[in-house]
Amino acid sequence: MWVNNEVGVIQPVARLAARCRAAGVPFHTDAVQAFGKIPVSLRDVDCTFLTISGHKIGAPKGIGALVVRDRHAVEAIIHGGGQQFGIRPGTENVPGIVGLGRAVELAAAEQAEFAHRVAALRDELERRLLATVPDAVINAWQAPRAPHVTNVAIPGTDSEALLMHFDLAGIACSSGSACSTGAVEPSHVLTAMGVPRELGVAALRFSFGKDNVIEDVEAVIAAVPKIVDKVRALSAVLHR
Fold it and tell me: Over 90: is that where the pLDDT of 185 sits?
């Protein structure tokens, strides 16, 4: 995964691809969260396969692309037609393909400006969040990150309750946690990073798109104090 979808960390795919190529090992990178957000070039990353998904860059949902650098490295699992070089035979989604092609052109052309603008919004959200909730933790803040994602843990809360209250306030964010047998479990990504459980179950992801503006950041910050106080109070009652 070129860019982790939960914390935004940019992985060293160029180094990994080079080592795999030297060892004769096929290397695939999931560039869904990377393309259009950070520079992505096959001249710089010697991977065997690369995938992107249209819905992340404004193309229709249900269309994506698998870039195959070495035709001999992939085997068709459906046979009978010659479409797409025989790798994936069947009727092609022409409107989706055209939409993806145009979206790719625009995302590549606008990447630098997009990254600059949304990085400023993300940084401002993090700055104001930490000013409002001083014990909040920005996960992976010291790592190289894509500009459009921040993952924030708010001690003394749980992400599912936070999500519900933010949703009621008209704010869309997400969580890496999943409800399992009635217990909220921390994201496997945060767990693998060594994030303590009490922070892992209290983490939210905020992500930015091309339509976000500073007023969206202000709306989040305006809602945060009341939501955090309410969830912390409820959590304190439940854990008595």
Answer: no
Write down the pTM of the prediction.
0.88
Task: Find out whether 73 and 49 touch, Cβ atoms under 8 Å.
Answer: yes
Q: Is 47 a catalytic residue?
A: no
Handedness of CA 24, 144, 65, 41 (dihedral sign): negative
Q: What is the pLDDT of residue 224?
A: 96
Name beta bridge partners: 184.
Answer: 179
DSSP state of 77: S
Mean pLDDT, residues 157-182 taken together: 81
Q: Which of 20, 47, 173, 179 is catalytic?
A: 179
CA angle 65, 147, 33 (to 5 degrees): 20
Write the CA distances from 207 to 82, 90, 118, 174, integer angstroms: 40, 35, 9, 9
Contacts of 52 (CB under 8 A, 6+ apart): 31, 32, 35, 64, 65, 67, 104
Domains and CATH numbers, the chain: 13-107 (3.40.640.10), 111-238 (3.90.1150.10)
